[in-house]
Specification:
mainly alpha, flat
Amino acid sequence: MPRMSAAATAITESAVFVTPMEPPATLDEEQARFWRELVGNFPGGRFNAGDRPLLTELCRHQAIARKVHEELEKMREWVLSAETSGVAKRRAVFLQLLRTAGEETRVISMLCVKLRLGTQSRTEKRVAEAEHSRMSIGARPWDVVGQQ
């Protein structure tokens, strides 16, 4: 039997399949579905046990945000511009849900940054530098047009 080269051995060792982390039992079914979708979109070893609390909170906030947006969609048919007491109460509920939706969006965004899920976090430095070096360093067309 021929010997395997060091490169072939390295490839064989790195080709080990890693199963994605399972969602914690504390998540409900909808939150666990968010977890599986998120973790399933990344390589098996991308998340570790230290990421579990942030992933858990992200899935919880995604479920809350979805429910808030469903309620806002139901309110789209409401008349909120009349000046009656009933409409004023509806308007207050609508504005409260809008604030809640904004807060959920901020929390989800912050958790995504902490987990490095954004495209900027996934772009390798050498790729970004190569793209930047290909950019032209001269005057941009829209800068030159006004000077003629």
